[in-house]
Amino acid sequence: DTGVSQNPRHKITKRGQNVTFRCDPISEHNRLYWYRQTLGQGPEFLTYFQNEAQLEKSRLLSDRFSAERPKGSFSTLEIQRTEQGDSAMYLCASSLGGVDTQYFGPGTRLTVL
Amino acid sequence: QQQVKQSPQSLIVQKGGIPIINCAYENTAFDYFPWYQQFPGKGPALLIAIRPDVSEKKEGRFTISFNKSAKQFSLHIMDSQPGDSATYFCAANRNTGKLIFGQGTTLQVKP
After folding, report:
1. Interface of A with B (CB under 8 A)
2. A40/A91 Cα distance (integer angstroms)
3. Fewest CB atoms within 10 A around its CB: which of A80, A112, B32, B43?
4. pLDDT tens-digit profile of A65-104?
């Protein structure tokens, strides 16, 4: 257990529904990252926050995706109008700074039917 | 554009063997190269990391070799054990913090 928690661990939804995932980072970490991992691939960067500011978003993050970190603590990732291609493991990581070790949570497995 | 290429895709060794996983990168601005280990259903966990000012780093049974001129780095696992069976990912980043991962290597260590 790295100290990064994610909820829910599994989510099954129907195409077109909205889903929201939560990440609780290690408490003193000011950086929080979201990645997406599909089967047999390495994690792909989606977005990251320093405190409450969202500093970078990947081109993978379409306008159906939105992420927040309202008080610089936990973060949420929302996917609107889910598509089957959104099925993946969504990973959250946190670090003390930009070049420090990123500690990953266990992930949220999303299945879109 | 794939910025970190990892090989082989899969690897089978006998217990006690020394599996070697290789990665190559393109962006010379990368300055941090970690290796992560991932078990099924779990998030990646940091194994060992290196910066380009050194050519080798050892932590326990894990060694990273780094060749800056060739833009390549590799992971060696000494005296491999069945418990080392997992997927291994190399990664790279700049001071932005965003990690670029390789495609992963599935390692099986036979008893």
Report:
1. 2, 4, 31, 33, 35, 40-45, 48, 56, 91, 93, 95, 97-99, 101-107
2. 15
3. A80
4. 999 999 889 999 999 999 999 999 999 999 987 667 899 9
